[in-house]
């Protein structure tokens, strides 16, 4: 029995490698056979991952201002300026135009941004735009000649168990590559901003990796490394990346308009109440519909359970909130919803936030 299990395990490993085209085989002089390696895909993707050095000043609340004594007897400013010097990572996603994706928190307050490529070139860059709610920022390298970019992959196609590589500049050591699995999808609740749909991975992510690339074994960008959970400040196998599809939508709006125009359809959402909906485990439930809103005009009603948006499954309220919030104003979104035992579809046009302001916590 033990022999059969061992043989089955080896067959599974062989099959895994056989279906991962990015895993090459190199000769093993000791055995005369070959061993697997990820070196080819690493060589392919690492030129597009850069180090970012930021200098600038930010304004923050003065702790002394909170003290009534100091406010009354001293001329205490409400805010003070603080000098910022930080490092992080970024990903070249458009080599021709020099566009680099990174995290908002990497370049917040930046007045001078310097890019260092893998081959040691130091290039000036400017911040094209930042979006704090998604923690995405777009930079543009001033002289983009000779750059290599990383193609986008479809982060919606990721599954738990997929192999990924995390590439960045941890602790200022220089470019570093780690590997792991997609541990979970659709993680939320890491901040108060609300636009979260994190990919969780056990590929080592440490301070300095922020803004770096999460790459699949086809050499495609599937995420922007953003955060970790760690009691001691280092990697414990719980890292988070912004899905590439979300980052790409944000980038497109920033490049086109300089900012993100968030849409609304005039509903408030809540996660599915399973006790009240036996037999259904996923979906975003409509808690309220604002009268006269796009959702109202399209036919959505309180209690409807949205299960798909543009033919992609909707599992949670946060997922639908992200979908609508990142859609372009004027875009039509197809929603499939359950009302009682019946499933139906409708199309709702995304409106500017101000047009859906009558809704309770409109999304």
UniProtKB/TrEMBL annotation:
One of its GO terms (biological process) is protein quality control for misfolded or incompletely synthesized proteins. The keyword Ribosomal protein does not apply. Its EC number is 3.4.21.107. SMART domains: PDZ (SM00228). Pfam families: PDZ_2, Trypsin_2. Residues 254-341 form the PDZ domain. Keywords: Hydrolase, Protease, Serine protease, Signal. It comes from the Bacteria. One of its GO terms (cellular component) is periplasmic space. It is an enzyme of class 3 (hydrolase). Residues 1-24 form the signal peptide. InterPro entries: PDZ, PDZ_sf, Peptidase_S1_PA, Peptidase_S1C. Gene3D superfamilies: 2.30.42.10, 2.40.10.120. GO terms for molecular function: serine-type endopeptidase activity. Belongs to the peptidase S1C family. This is Periplasmic pH-dependent serine endoprotease DegQ. It comes from Bradyrhizobium ivorense. The gene is degQ_1.
């Amino acid at each position: 029995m033990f022999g059969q299990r061992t043989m089955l395990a080896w067959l599974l490993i062989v099959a895994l490698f056989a279906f991962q085209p990015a895993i090459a085989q190199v000769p093993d002089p000791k055995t005369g056979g070959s061993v697997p390696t990820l070196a080819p895909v690493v060589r392919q993707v690492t030129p597009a991952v850069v180090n970012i050095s930021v200098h600038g000043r930010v304004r923050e609340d003065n702790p002394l201002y909170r003290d009534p004594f100091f406010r009354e007897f001293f001329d205490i400013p409400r805010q003070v300026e603080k000098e910022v010097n930080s490092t992080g990572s970024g990903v070249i996603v458009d080599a021709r135009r020099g566009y680099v994706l990174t995290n908002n928190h990497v370049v917040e307050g930046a007045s001078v941004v310097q890019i260092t490529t893998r081959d040691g070139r130091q290039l000036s860059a400017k911040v094209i735009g930042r979006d704090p709610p998604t923690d995405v920022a777009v930079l543009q390298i001033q002289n983009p000649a000779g750059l290599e970019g990383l193609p986008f992959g479809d982060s919606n196609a990721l599954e738990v168990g997929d192999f990924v590589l995390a590439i960045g500049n941890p602790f200022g050591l220089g470019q570093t590559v780690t590997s792991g699995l997609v541990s979970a999808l659709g993680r939320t609740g890491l901040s108060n901003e609300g636009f979260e749909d994190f990919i969780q991975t056990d590929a080592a992510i440490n301070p300095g990796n922020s803004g770096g690339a999460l790459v699949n074994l086809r050499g495609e960008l599937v995420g922007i490394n953003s955060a970790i959970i760690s009691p001691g400040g280092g990697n414990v196998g719980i890292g988070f990346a912004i899905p590439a599809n979300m980052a790409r939508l944000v980038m497109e709006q920033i490049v086109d308009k300089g900012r993100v125009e968030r849409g609304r359809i005039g509903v408030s959402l809540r996660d599915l109440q399973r006790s009240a909906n036996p037999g259904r485990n996923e979906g975003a439930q409509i808690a309220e519909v604002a009268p006269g809103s796009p959702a109202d005009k399209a036919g959505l009603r309180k209690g409807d359970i949205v299960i798909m948006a543009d033919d992609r499954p909707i599992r949670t309220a946060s997922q639908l909130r992200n979908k609508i919030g990142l859609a372009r104003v004027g875009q039509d979104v197809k929603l499939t919803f359950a009302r009682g035992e019946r499933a139906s579809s409708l199309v709702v046009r995304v409106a500017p936030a101000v047009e859906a302001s009558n809704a309770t916590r409109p999304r």
